[in-house]
Specification:
Helix 1 crosses helix 4, helix 2 runs antiparallel to helix 3 and helix 3 crosses helix 4. The protein has one domain. By secondary structure, the chain is mainly alpha-helical. It contains four helices and no strands.
């Protein structure tokens, strides 16, 4: 039983590693990231001023995280975008 659990864990880590490497090699520009943020956190005409301010703050924070020095090893990649949105 323990061997099966460890094999399952090792297989999952292998799949995860392959995906992370793919993300690190996939280009994702600042423009694409901005489009993602605008889609995930839209600002619409029917929003209150307070709601617009909250969305603008989210946009600002996510852009900061995408551009911050700690994320520069993966800057311009899908992994950098993932890092920023899950920080």
């Amino acid at each position: 039983m323990a061997k099966q659990v460890l094999k399952g864990y090792a297989d999952a880590i292998s799949v995860f590693d392959k995906r992370i490497n793919t993300f690190a090699l996939t280009k994702f520009t600042q423009e694409q990231f901005t489009m993602f943020v605008n889609t995930a956190f839209p600002i619409t005409a029917d929003m209150t001023e307070s709601a617009v301010e909250k969305q603008e703050e989210r946009h600002s924070i996510l852009n900061y995280l995408y551009e911050m020095e700690d994320n520069q090893n993966y800057g311009g990649t899908l992994l950098g975008a993932l890092n920023a949105t899950t920080y």
